Amino acid sequence: MERKPKRSKTLLSNEEEPPLIRRSMTFGIQMLPDDLVLNCLARVSRIYYPILSLVSKRFRSFLTSTELFQTRNLLGRTESFLYVYLRIRHVSNPLRLFTLCRRPNSSTKVMVPILSPDSIPKYLPDVVLVGSNIYVIGGSIKNNASSSVMVMDCRSHTWREAQSMRAARVNPSACVLDGKIYVAGGCQNPDATIWMEVFDTKTQTWEFVSSPGEEICRDLTRCESIGYDGNVYVKSMQTYGLYELHKGRWRKGQPSMSRGGSLSSLCVIDNVLYSCWSCMIDWYDSEEKLWKRLKGLEGLFGITHYVPSKCVNYGGKIVVFWLERVHANQLHEETKIWCAEITIERRQKGEIWGTREWFDVVFTTNEPNVDLAYVFAATL
């Protein structure tokens, strides 16, 4: 009689662990003290947190705690995560939030939707990121201007209401500088003294900023802004005039800095401004007051015409999102959202070069009238 070979006690890579072993491992971890569990979880990539949250209520509590975030910070285990707001016109819910996720054990990245409460203004707010929090500011609720501020904690994807602005605003322009949120315009009241206010995220309080004067306010009825190099820059959408809030005083900004393009397509890395235009990236030489091309990317994306695009500082790298509209026929349009990650490097003679690490389609929709609204990178 032929003997069957003995089964090895070592688990093969393609075999599933017996339930008893899985239960004993889980039980062992559950018996560890809190500080040790936190230390273990802090060393695991956040892409596995949704799976780990299913282990127990205790794990879910740890995974959304501020203590875990602080431990990851201390251990140097923080990661950057991307968040994308899409604007879909002519629908009841025009602003939709997504996060870019890498599938476990895979290099594939996809945009995954995040639910937002109904209380958030869907029409014409502005959105900024401070630390690990996304702020949705102002907007229109039932055709009335709103002063509300809603905040999503990117660590837990939970929402809360923050202190309201002093003035209600529709379609304001918000930017971040030194952890403070500057909000300009959007007021139905023509009073220039309430044109801009600033929110201190540490004290959670609002106060008005010195007025730039009625003439400038009229020029900045529709505007956009950016915090850069210790100053707040505000650009008129009508005349393209650029103004600068420097040490509490307003003055004319350097015209070459805005180059006629949108401030929303800019990002700052190591105090250098980068501009994304149809996936071609330029950087601003603040000494020469000139925009220069980021070298090394020519023709890498195969784009020969204008496409809507946004860029963001992703842990010292540049990540670019752009739209591709594919017309199958007159009645059917498919929109693809592409994403590319680019490493930047300073070389001799002051040149800055870019190297594409990867690019791929991360989202596809048949919904018409889709635009990129905002892109953020949160360190978690």
Offer a concise description of the structure.
This is Kelch-type beta propeller. The chain has 380 residues and is mainly beta. It has helices at residues 19-30, 34-42, 49-52, 57-63, 66-75, 214-219, 255-258; strands at residues 80-88, 95-102, 109-114, 126-130, 133-137, 140-141, 144-145, 149-153, 158-161, 173-177, 180-184, 196-200, 205-208, 223-228, 231-236, 242-246, 249-252, 266-269, 272-277, 280-285, 290-293, 309-314, 317-327, 333-346, 352-365, 370-379.
Helix content: 10-25%
Strand order of the largest sheet: 3-2-1-26
* Rg over alpha carbons: 24 Å
Q: Biggest β-sheet: count, sense, barrel?
A: 4 strands, antiparallel
The computed structural class is mainly beta
Shape: globular
What ranges have pLDDT less than 50 throughout 5 or more consecutive residues? 1-17, 20-25
Q: How far apart, in Å, are the first and last alpha carbons?
A: 62 Å
Q: What is the residue-averaged pLDDT?
A: 86
Strand segment count: 26
Provide the domain count. 3
Number of helices: 7
Strand percent estimate: 35-45%
Structural summary, described in words:
There is one protein chain. Helix 2 (34-42) packs across helix 5. Helices cover 14% and strands 42% of the residues. The protein is built from seven helices and 26 strands. It has a four-stranded antiparallel beta sheet, with no helix packed on it. It folds into three domains: 19-75, no CATH class; 79-114 and 259-380, no CATH class; 119-253, Kelch-type beta propeller (Neuraminidase, 6 Propeller), CATH 2.120.10.80. With 380 residues, it is mostly beta strands. The longest helix has 12 residues, at 19-30. Residues 1-17 and 20-25 have low confidence and may be disordered.
